[in-house]
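User: Hey, quick favor. My workstation is busy. Could you predict this chain's structure for me?
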Amino acid sequence: MDRILLTDDLGRQGYHGTEIAAMVRHGDLVRLRRGAYLPGPAPSTPVDLREQHRRLIHATLGQSGDGNVVSHMSAGVLHGLPICSDQLDRVQVIRDRAGGGRSRRHVVVRGMPLTAGDVEVVDGLPTTTLARTVVDLACQLPMRQSVPVGDAALRMTARTAPERDLRSELAEVLDRATRRPGVPTARRAVAFFDPRSESPGESYSRVVMHERGLPPPQLQHEIVDDFGLLVARCDFAWPELRTVGEFDGLVKYTGQFGANTSEVLIAEKRREDAIRLYGWQVARWVWSDLRRPAVFAATLNRSFALAR
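Assistant: No problem, here it is.
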């Protein structure tokens, strides 16, 4: 990311009011928010929403006084967690004090207790730690949104720092937060986290299954043939019901990773035929199905009945 230029930086270079406005009009500067700019020209393709928010975080912290710590959704972005794009319109920060929160056009400030162990430097900015961020979000969000965040955090630390015990860190943060609103919900969410869910869609699916009273699935279940060779690895499985479930995020069909769409479709058809050949019923769903939980549950129950 290019260095963000604040009005004071430009002033020290000899630029002032009308000159800065003219540079914005001519594309020499790109305005991020009041008083913060990037060197132009503007990119020819739209900037990813998470990158836009990261730039807004840097622009906002650059103009704020000491004591602000990036938190909640904004900290989730800096930590690389899956945050919904409709929650990235304002930077979220904490100040270590009792109450005194406020909301402005570009920033939400919360007054909350912070210990030294709750803060680390991420992307050059004071930010709540991964564990504190996950707990803050779990206190604030419904499980359908917080579980994908927690699953991703556990998955990420298992990959990058296998010696780290993030579950213990989460428990410690929760123990210090007993009086906070939302802690009971956060405890339920943390207990539900599972790093074996490999995408936000899989995590969200698990929560909907739980809410609808469906049998708990096995995750990343492997089906093998008569010679012990792998036939397929499935997102979800109910072995006693001879049913597997697959969340389909549709990314693999877009050509985004260079694969030919028709080849992907053929390979997926062969894979599903092989699963059925070994006596399994296959249920598939997409995001739109999860947004209709009752219909989604009925579809899964029909698959269970067909397998019987």
